[in-house]
Amino acid sequence: MPCSQWKTLAFLFLLIFFIEVECSLSIFDKITQLPGQPQVSFQQFSGYVTVDEKKQRALFYYFVEAEIDPASKPLVLWLNGGPGCSSLGVGAFSENGPFKPSGEVLIRNEYSWNREANMLYLETPIGVGFSYSTDSSSYAAVNDKITARDNLAFLHKWFIKFPQYRNRSLFITGESYAGHYVPQLAELMLQFNKKEKLFNLKGITLGNPVLEFTTDFNSRAEFLWSHGLISDSTYKVFTSTCNYSRYVSEYYRGSVSPICSRVMSLVTRETSRFVDKYDVTLDVCITSVLSQSKVLTPHQVRDKIDVCVEDETVSYLNRRDVQKALHSRLVGVNRWLVCSDILDYELLDLEIPTISIVRKLIEAGIPVLVYSGDQDSVIPLTGSRTLVHGLAEELGLNTTVPYRVWFAGMQVGGWTRVYGNILSFATIRGASHEAPFSQPERSLVLFKAFLEGSPLPEAF
């Protein structure tokens, strides 16, 4: 055989080899079956994507394909907040994933979001959950910019493992401090696409998000007062003498003024430690998964949440057989935790508004939905609604859907308003800070409508 033919043949063999290797990378991450899991028809994957070879910084993910016809469904990335809390333990196993731990087994979540999409849960930043670095310095001075860059690098490399999703419609969603994570990641995606069209970003969804520090935090006083949790006199000093944004700002600078200390003592005493601030209607017996927003309530950070039931998720994810099935490992820590205790995050990033980034995304044609569980006093609906309306006015967006109720399961699911068919606000009636946890059916109806670009149901 002539040399040229040998070279051609060799090239073809190499090409086939690399294609097969690329297409089979995800096979190593495929989950055969999770311990105690009921039989399902969809595929699950989990494992690591290394975002920094030198320091061996690796992010852990859990990916669940859609229940029916995954090839036709969009890809959705879910991010939990904190900063420093797990999208696996909170998002996947407590909110909108396919299973929830119950004793030694997993039970199906009837309202799992993988009914409508291929769901990708990412434990971010490094040091959260099963994500790790072999260099402990990686856990120090972590900030929003580092997190956004790592998340972009993760997705870029994840598409190498799952090339079939490269051109798929992509949505990013999350809650709480993900009001920082999601817009910043989306902005980097748009910048990346100018060089190489990789991310087919179709929209972002933000649940009870931190978007603008002062507005979001200072709306707490009115919410607590209107729900009868604080007195008239305390409301007055909480809005004039020392508001909540001032207190948090002082707290994270290590210098709480005597006046703010007195005001917060009043607020804390009246609201009572026996009321869950993330859902003022819930009884106090809650699991530690609801501590994902602990950074947003700094006066409680040092207190261990008094749970009255076993934390099913923590117990399940710390089982050796579960970790083996997930292809996960513990590096530098003894236990998997809902929220990281090794991560040193730059908490003053909380004060940097991300509503301006949301504006850039809308101007770039990316649809945005902000939703609020209406029983959350931590990031109340009043602040989010004010920010969305103000943004619509800045952008000159006309109201395309007037403020109205929407329905789910033959009941009012919440209220909504849409601006310019690109910016939406919605409440989820009776929902907590973690809306899919407390109102799963209503959250799924909202999620489905956003993916489809359709209006929320006007009737049942």
TrEMBL record:
Q: Which organism is it from?
A: Nyssa sinensis
What is the name of this protein?
Carboxypeptidase
User: Which top EC class is named for this enzyme in its record?
Assistant: hydrolase
Assigned EC number: 3.4.16.-
Q: What does this protein do?
A: Probable carboxypeptidase.
Belongs to which family?
A: Belongs to the peptidase S10 family.
Q: Where are the transmembrane segments?
A: none
- The principal location of this protein is secreted
